[in-house]
Design a protein that fits this description.
There is one protein chain. Helices cover 27% and strands 31% of the residues. It is α/β, with parallel strands linked by helices. The two termini are 29 Å apart.
């Protein structure tokens, strides 16, 4: 069973990226589920997801966490296991991961990932799958958050759009607070199979993905060549 992850730099829903995830399932009209925990189940965000999915050959689902037992009879694990692909939205990474741990969603996602459900997302929805990275989830400044370690590398989203992201990512790798890892510009994405990069794609020629690591006290950014799918 192939383990697949598709991550991109921004949490904004786009037709090309969600279509890529849907096709990665290898199924016709796959069940594609949006998990908007990081945004507090924001209704506008959910509406945009449905608008994008209306342009795709998918069955769109949303898994909210702000629920109660009277109205929702399926467990989170039951919902997740019915899906072919799961896309996680942007927002507060730290709060999202805390809720997932409390609700057992993290374990359900891990089980689904091991069983071939395609995982992915952008911003918080890309950072969460790695061993760590920088987040704006806490007040005052960017700080380090630990992820779920589906891939044991660090990650940096918003690499080209938020000025502090790139230099902070570099310094954290140099001082050992983060491992080597992958960085994605907002409109760039990486497809992993069995924890290895198999493809890089972007929505235009100005956005890219990189493997970032330290060598002899200096940061090396290895461009991961990709195809434009926008």
């Amino acid at each position: 069973m192939q383990r697949q992850l598709f991550i991109y730099g921004s949490g904004r829903h786009t037709v090309p990226f969600l279509d890529y995830m849907a096709k990665a399932t290898g199924k016709q009209n796959p069940n594609l589920c949006f998990i908007p925990t990081a945004s507090g189940d924001d209704e506008g965000y959910i509406e945009r997801f449905h608008e994008v999915c209306d342009q795709l050959e998918v069955h769109a689902h949303v898994m909210r966490v702000w629920v109660n037992s009277y109205d929702d009879k399926e467990t989170f694990a039951t919902i997740i296991n019915q899906m072919d692909a799961i896309v996680v939205g942007g927002g507060n990474t730290l709060n999202m991961l805390a809720i997932w741990q409390a609700q057992g969603i993290d374990k359900a996602l891990r089980n689904a990932y091991e069983n071939g459900v395609v995982m992915g997302g952008g911003s918080a929805g890309s950072l969460c799958w790695f061993n760590g990275g920088t987040t704006d989830s806490r007040p005052a400044e960017l700080s380090i958050v630990e992820g779920m370690r589906f891939i044991d590398k660090s990650h940096c989203p918003h690499y080209n759009s938020e000025k502090s992201r790139r230099p902070l990512y570099h310094s954290n790798i140099l001082n050992g607070d983060l491992t080597d890892g992958y960085a994605c510009d907002d409109r760039s994405a990486l497809h992993f199979i069995n924890e290895k990069v198999v493809k890089s794609v972007s929505l235009d020629a100005d956005n890219h993905s990189y493997y970032v690591h330290a060598e002899n006290g200096h940061i090396i950014e290895d461009l991961i060549p990709g195809d434009i799918i926008g």
